[in-house]
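Next comes a single protein record:
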Amino acid sequence: MLYVLSFLVSFSIVYFLIPPLGRLAFRLDFVDKPRKDVERKIHREPIPLTASYAIFIGFFITYLAFAREFSMETIALFAGGVLLLTIGTIDDWYKTKGKDFPALPKMIVQVSAAVLVYLSGNAFTGFYNPFSGDYIVLPVVLSFLLTIIWIFGVTTVINFSDGMDGLAGALTAISAVTLFIVALAKGQSSSAVMAIALVGVTIAYLRYNKPPAKIFMGDAGATFLGFILAVIALDGAFKQATVLSLFIPILALGVPIFDNIFVVVKRFIQGKSIYQADATQAHYRLLRAGLSQKQVVAVLCLISVCLSLSSIILLLIET
């Protein structure tokens, strides 16, 4: 019942907040305008960029109401979310003016949000040796680096995946459902509440973001969703993990992770900045291959579901 209520509350908040926030965006001219000279801009009408605030409010009201705990981890999660929402809003504001915000400030803020989570005690500390059953504690430096890389990496790949109506939201929802199942299996109620709240906000968002989209979440929303997914995995699937279960969250987030590893490697080989926006992600390549937007989203979501089912199979093998 707790999880059903968490889903309904998070869904309802976002569902009812998005329309007035969309109208406000038009008044403030906070909209993503189509640009014919940019391949990534495939929409043809100005679209509000304010869904991120509904997502942020819906998630945290639900989490604080149903998680039944208030700790340093909660404070770090909220502070990190505020940091990402703020820098993302600045980035989105630049986009409304047809400009690109510098990559370095975004990277610094995203890493800072990850550091806050690590300092709160939510970190990848080690794993169980499958042969001896002993828990192997990682050195502090390695624990710090892996935690920061994981949070920063997931935050970035979800943001990179937000290039087509309904895609980032759908991939996030699929991953969040998977992490919810993992949290339930491990008896981690706090992680389960976070995951089901994330499912609620993303499905409500998809009601307005499915092709053709009526609203966008922008960088502010995409980086926030990635950040929360990364934290849920740290708090749930990665906590006291075995070698086998380390692959569970990686498979759950398989489509954005593997696609964007390919993109980053390609940009590196070509001597481009990894933050340089282009149209090399899988969704753009499928679009150029002749698929419609809805078909592209369906194909990538199907792959994501298959990878998520694989992660659940790993969970069953482990248990």
In short: Residues 238 and 246 are 6 Å apart (CA to CA). The mean pLDDT is 88.
